[in-house]
Write a sequence for this structure.
């Protein structure tokens, strides 16, 4: 599927800043016509597409036309909801320059215009789970009070029955559905504002890359379950305070999974190869949060060290000369 401009025939893409479909060729808005095609060939130039069997949106490597591979968006792999990009590629580039532009030891071309062309906007497949957590606690809370009476040091122990029964709703607990991307990095790029989720529409994929999830919802439910369980324990513990110590007689947390939504979340990836290693920086496509590691140029670090030593030696010599003159 291609979104073609009915005014000029250009490739229409979703614009994060305008939050509308935009033709970069004639600057028209919402001017798209849908052109269906074989998923194996580009409808614009006829070239074979270099896309994987899991790709749901891609770009022709010959004419740069963005395509939606709708044949891969069926059944279990059709998202229920999507969080559209709100940060544009230009804004992501500015964010990288702002965060890393003043780092003096990065390679010279790390943030060059040519290098930054490698930034890709991708939608990451996620599952969002709704749980109801029933928390139960039966315990004895003890408050200790120590005071002095004459020659005696007296400690009193006051015992209290502590009972908690609460239901805690958890909405949109995320679990990454991608095998390729590191789970720790994906958790660091969060949070996303799920209040802005929209019903899925293929148009949001035009201009970006996306793949099917590598796992089905029941295969990663345990990840979200563990998160909700940890949150429940924290909330339950915070509900009991003011005691010197707590003796638990019975504690249980029962989680019921109520609903799961298959969604796509926006992110930019900047990959930079340096000295045989590939460095990855991630930008949250909704709020601009940045994580990742940057390369360090050892030659620049050595050069700066040498220059610093030369400056210190020069200052020392100048100081000695001034002393002799005095």
């Amino acid at each position: 599927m291609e979104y073609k401009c009915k005014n000029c025939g250009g490739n229409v893409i979703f614009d994060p800043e305008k939050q509308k479909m935009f033709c970069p060729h004639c600057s028209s808005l919402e001017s798209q016509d849908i052109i269906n095609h074989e998923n194996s060939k580009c409808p614009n130039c006829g070239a074979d597409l270099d896309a994987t069997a899991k790709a749901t949106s891609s770009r022709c490597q010959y004419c740069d036309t963005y395509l939606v591979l709708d044949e891969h968006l069926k059944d279990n792999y059709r998202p229920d909801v999507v969080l559209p990009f709100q940060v544009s590629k230009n804004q992501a580039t500015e964010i990288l320059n702002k965060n890393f532009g003043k780092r003096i030891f990065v390679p010279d071309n790390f943030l060059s215009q040519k290098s930054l062309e490698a930034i890709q906007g991708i939608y990451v497949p996620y599952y969002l789970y709704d749980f109801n957590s029933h928390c139960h606690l039966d315990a004895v809370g003890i408050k200790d009070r120590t005071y002095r009476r004459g020659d005696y040091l007296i400690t009193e122990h006051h015992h209290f029955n502590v009972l908690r029964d609460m239901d805690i709703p958890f909405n949109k607990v995320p679990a990454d559905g991608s095998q390729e991307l590191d789970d720790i990095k994906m958790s660091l790029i969060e949070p996303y504002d799920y209040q802005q989720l929209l019903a899925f529409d293929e148009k949001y994929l035009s201009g970006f890359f996306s793949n099917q999830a590598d796992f089905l919802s029941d295969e990663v439910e345990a990840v979200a379950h563990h998160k909700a369980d940890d949150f429940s324990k924290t909330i339950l513990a915070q509900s009991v305070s003011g005691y010197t110590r707590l003796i638990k007689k019975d504690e249980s947390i029962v989680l019921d999974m109520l609903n799961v939504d298959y969604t796509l979340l926006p992110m930019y990836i900047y990959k930079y190869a340096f000295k045989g290693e590939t460095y990855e920086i991630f930008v949250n496509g909704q709020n601009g949060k940045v994580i990742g590691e940057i390369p360090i140029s050892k030659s620049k670090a050595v050069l700066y060290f040498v220059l610093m030593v030369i400056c210190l030696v020069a200052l020392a010599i100048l100081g000695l000369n001034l002393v002799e003159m005095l």
The mean pLDDT is 88.
